Automatic annotation (TrEMBL):
Annotated GO MF terms: 2 iron, 2 sulfur cluster binding; metal ion binding; methyltransferase activity; oxidoreductase activity
Domain FAD-binding FR-type: 1-100
GO BP terms in the entry: methylation
Organism for this UniProt entry: Marinomonas polaris DSM 16579
Name of the molecule in the record: Vanillate O-demethylase ferredoxin subunit
UniProt entry tagged with the keyword Iron: yes
Length: 318
């Protein structure tokens, strides 16, 4: 863990606060690439993941921007109460949403606060001299974090703003944007779950390959009505042969924790990837949004915080 100090607090848009976090002693913080996030350990004990929202020229600082969610489970509301001088613990940066190692054109799409991991991608692509376009969808400039900075950024000519509540602006024509690049580009998208689902559906219908669709959810979508009801099953620990019951109202993580098996878990909704675990035998009942469709079909990985089993026993690589 890394101790940091809140060096600045800035209202970035309606309901959005940006925090500048600095190392306690002024030393450089670990480097990171665009798309990375940190675990923020809040004073209450809550742990939340937030994207590093800008690549800082000064290595002793990180920046995050957080929307105060009306449906907050406590994390975003607590972040909004932090003050300059408060001390926190953070993890080293983790990256489950990296830019691919390719010179293909990149289509960057941000919805609302989903701009936070997308902005550093634009910075990095611009620095590398690679081709990209950046679509930012929001209700208005007042609700769009970093809108002023993006309008004057070095890549402003690549920006397209889509404001749904501004006269003269319009919602993004998703089909038009995606149809121009189905054969030659990488897509990176972050935003509300329903927004991501819609864009990815359109991309797949237009023939985009799965391995060129990159997304990061901040919250899990509402489960499909067709998702099966919970049933009890057993989990087997591959290294010891131990078998534990998972009740109808338990997650795999909860059952393991109850039996003294430690598993790192953070979001508890299949979004962050922290608890990703290998599957040795059995068929997972996937309920996460972190793994790709291909990974779901392969059935070799599972998110024990939310997913379950379609078979009576699920053997985990633990």
């Amino acid at each position: 863990m890394i101790p940091v100090v809140v060096r600045n607090v800035v209202t970035e848009a309606q309901g959005v606060v940006r925090l500048v976090l600095g190392s306690e002693d002024g030393s450089d913080l670990p480097s990171f690439d665009a798309g990375a996030h940190i675990d923020l350990h809040l004073p209450s004990g809550l742990i939340r993941q937030y994207s590093l929202c800008r690549i800082q020229p000064e290595a002793q600082y990180y920046e995050i921007a957080v929307l105060k969610d009306p449906q907050s489970r406590g994390g975003s509301a607590e972040v909004h109460r932090l003050k300059i001088g408060d001390t926190l613990l953070i993890s080293t940066p983790k990256n489950h949403f990296p830019l691919m190692d390719t010179t293909r054109h990149s289509v960057l799409i941000a919805g609302g606060i989903g701009v936070t991991p997308i902005l550093p991608m634009a910075q990095q692509l611009q620095k590398m001299g690679l081709s990209f376009e950046f679509h930012y969808c929001a209700r208005s400039p007042e609700t769009a974090a970093f809108s002023s900075a993006l309008e004057s950024a070095s890549f402003a000519d690549k920006m397209q703003f889509h404001y749904s509540e501004v006269a003269g602006s319009s919602q993004m024509d998703v089909v038009s944007v995606l149809s121009r690049h189905a054969n030659d580009s990488e897509l990176y998208i972050c935003g509300p779950a329903s927004f991501i689902d819609y864009v990815l559906l359109q991309a797949k219908m237009l023939g985009w390959p799965e391995d060129r669709l990159h997304r990061e959810f901040f919250a899990a979508p509402i489960l499909d009505e067709n998702v099966s009801e919970n049933t009890a099953f057993k989990v087997k620990i591959h290294s010891t042969g131990e078998i534990f019951d998972v009740g109808v109202d338990q997650s795999i993580f909860e059952a393991l924790d109850e039996n003294g098996i430690f598993l790192a878990v953070s979001c508890e909704s299949g979004v962050c990837g922290t608890c990703q675990t290998g599957v040795i035998d059995g068929v997972p009942d996937h309920r996460d949004v972190f793994l790709t469709d291909k990974e779901h079909a392969q059935g070799k990985l599972i998110m024990p915080c939310c997913s379950r089993s379609k078979t009576p026993v699920l053997e985990l690589d633990l």
